[in-house]
């Protein structure tokens, strides 16, 4: 912002809703008063023509309307206004008004008034030209060097220059290579016309060249001239600007400085009359208009330049001399002389703000009022400072991202599930195995306590459940407004879901513009996926749940099914899932047990979950606080592993289909290339059954794609069943060991780390990694093993395993550890102390971590040598006396052997090679030390001794290698056998089975 503002001398607001542009402003003595004072002529796109004579004396006692001489409403839009000698045989100035399809020349006359209302002004039409083409802009001048009058040149929207000499039409020429019209100007010094073409270059056409060029009725005629006569129109010179021009001006106030000024979008160009550039000024703003005016210094040009930052800058060539602030963005600027003041800057905005101003040097400063001096109360200031610092700390801590807990909620969401099923049903599948598919309505009520914008509501349910509409776009909500939406939920697949809960997510923008997300959960009724049926005679899977309270009437627990049951005693209920499986719940009359049985292990999950939840609700209503439930039977791992194997086989099948599809696609493209080569060959050749092979490959690709799609659908169904089995297993484990909710959540996150399978990561590898982590951390045998596992960093990349044997073994071991009193907690990871020796082992370059499992899952005892090595570091002297080779072999043997036996790679040759490398390096170091200890001798004797000693050392090395290799081999064999005999009866650890 400038320090100085343009001093307002006179201003006016021109109408409402009118638009103005570059050519809508002109100044001149249009009424030929003879005083030399200018009038301001303004035309608008709405066809309104106004003439003003600004006078500062009238501003004090009357409105700006008194300065208005004339206001006329014309029929067409006004594109440009100019003042000049446009009438023959007359030296008076006339007004030329350019309309889109008409050129009109008017005379403005004033009649002296005899009353206080002043003079009267009239606008009379002298002549007009109807245009055959839509006009864009115009220029005027003494074309051809004539004197006494001025001619007009109009540029049309399709690139034709039309020349008018007073009231007659002279000729028209099309510009070559025209695409879009640009600014137009006339240079009287060279009698040429300047314009900027669509090629972003400045072009100069001499009037003589335009006059003698062949006349053309259309642009096509100008592009294809006949060879018999006429000249093709070509520019006299061109200059590449590289950007589009806003305006062109040819100042004629000083013949000594003949310049052509072009205002571009980012640069200001100044050229000589022959097209050579004088200077270029790169602008750091977006210009809107400019005007050259006379300079007091010879050889220079002053110009006014307005920009889109409401600034008016004064330049002398490329030097900035002054800058003033305007109240608007100027689209046109002129310099005028008025009776009271000369050199007034007249500027016009696009919305009709007309301002006459001058460059004043009085800066406008805001002077602060004086404050009464008073003594400061330092205690009060200190208390206020502490209070402000507290506010600042709270604001910087939250930063308006996380809502404060004590703040009033901006939006509340409440979901209500209807107690009755819909009639009629909204389900897409109306019938499954003869059973109707019901639907239930869920109503969501939103209440806003502040203004909310861009609110969206999304509904998510677990497959195969579906909703009638899952996306809602909400209108902006005011303070206290409420909004209700409703949708129906139903079963949309031929298998039961793993979860009957759904999520409602509302995203919106707070009044401060911060995005917020609000989540709410609802539970769908069990009656949505099953109906009552007669009990099955034989079942495969049974689960028994024990309680410490007398048996409860099942009809009182499942009230929505009580009206349809045949057993009035409430001892049994049989649920028929819409997908076909039956689940029966039996209550013992004598004991406090409940049995759930079915032919499908996965389908029992929803019934068991619903039964346990309704037991808790029933006894809490009765006020019984010591209600307990448990599961005493063996864990159904074999039944659970059936779901795991089924899911894994479908994943393997999906990978195989993917590989086969890739092979057939490669084959299909190869056959296509062969056929294309045959068809492009100029000499016909037999296809050799390539077309038949192409059809067969295409059919195979289609069949494989359909099979892969079917396998994908089965895989989705298998994963839902696997989720049901896993959640049932987690529930039984929590009932078996009485796990707390936090421990149950850890167990569920471990066994169910993914909510859906992805091509990159599947359930098997994710679950195996999570279970292995638990077995190594909080469920490990000893704190030392736990610390060792925590010190390990990194791990293998997760991928599809070869089979599920390892996963099953780890899950079985997890259940066994939990059954033996293992404590599920994540705090052990953070609280476990890692010894310094273990940290050194896990550091880069240290000894590899100790393997927990040896061979086929047999646990291995820690050798004494290894424990000594970990607990105590021997001194350098002890290390030299002992054989370092034996020490390292014993310490590294268990971990390396366990790793190699897992991978099925023989380890003896690798160890021998490692040992030889270590021995050779150590022998080299010892030989260097011995050579350094020997006293210096003459050069000849030293060379002889070095040669003889090197031979003896080589022979010793070979003998030592043979002896030590045999001894270490015997020690290794005996060590392995002793380890296996000791540890045969121990359980396998996790991670390396």
Give a verbal description of the structure.
- This protein is 32% helix and 27% strand.
- It has 993 residues and is of the alpha+beta class.
- A 6-stranded antiparallel beta sheet has the order 39-41-42-43-40-44.
- α7 (637-680) runs antiparallel to α8 (690-737), α8 (690-737) runs antiparallel to α9 (741-751) and α18 (908-933) runs antiparallel to α19.
- It is elongated.
Number of helices: 19
Approximate shape: elongated
Sheet with most strands? 6 strands, antiparallel
Tell me the strand percentage band.
25-35%
- The radius of gyration is 48 Å
Question: What structural class results from the helix and strand content?
Answer: alpha+beta
* Low-pLDDT runs: 58-62, 223-230, 828-918, 924-947, 963-993
- Strand order across the largest sheet: 39-41-42-43-40-44
In total, how many beta strands? 46
Distance between the termini: 75 Å
* Helix amount: 25-40%
Average pLDDT score: 78
